[in-house]
Amino acid sequence: MPHSRGIQKGITVKLRARVLLFAPLAALLMDGSCPSPEPFPPAMLTAPIITQVSVDAFAFQSTPGYRPAIHVRWQMPANGSLGVREFAIFQKTIGDSSFTLLARSIPGNVFDYYENADNVGFPGLLSYKTILFQMFAIDSIGRTSDTSAIDTLVLAWQPIPVSPLESDSISNDSLVWYVTSVMAGYYTYSMLYSDTAGLLWSAPRPIIPVYSYQGDTVQSADQIPASLFPLPPGGYTWAIKLEVPALNAQSLAVRRLYAR
Predict the structure, then answer these.
(1) N or C: which end of the chain has fewer CB within 10 A?
(2) Are 130 and 247 in contact (CB under 8 A)?
(3) pLDDT digits over 86-135, tens only?
């Protein structure tokens, strides 16, 4: 009998010890102060997709009116846009040894970027300049996504505005310019921007390209719609687009005008 009582006492002591051990944990669970596990890092971002690179007119704060601009547009895959803090874009001209940074700190909710084309420069007559672009996204903890596929912009020579003259008053509704022709054919057409209202009018892109002998000077003209003319007083930018579809090349020339 004394032997059995000793076993029972030993069991009682062990049970009490276990109760004492679990008591602090139970108290933590009861008052909700149990520390939660650290969250896992978010999934890595997927690479952005460059959807288009073109030459468009853009109003930079550093220059009056509109200037030719390289316009890069992109998107994120449907399941890959969460947690984007910023984007970075890189460019490389054919002949360069490596890509250089074009822009960084583009906010994660912005999906296009304009670079002043004056910083790159258009090629001379009947010449082309090829620029390559890549980009990546950066997430909220500073990790970079995979780099996008390369997209390409081919710059062509610029058309030459003839009339109205630079800084001239717009006295009639006719816009005249010429293009040094390429045998592959080209499209050319006008746009008119207001300093205060943005794009006022764009001539329709011609259905049939212009064909002429290589190096010929070919004159083109557009007419400002009667519904807009005469223009209200103010500053304007006349932009002339040139597209060479056979080489996927494009350019843009601008001229500052005024209505008084």
Answers:
(1) N
(2) no
(3) 999 999 999 899 999 999 999 999 999 999 999 999 999 999 999 999 99
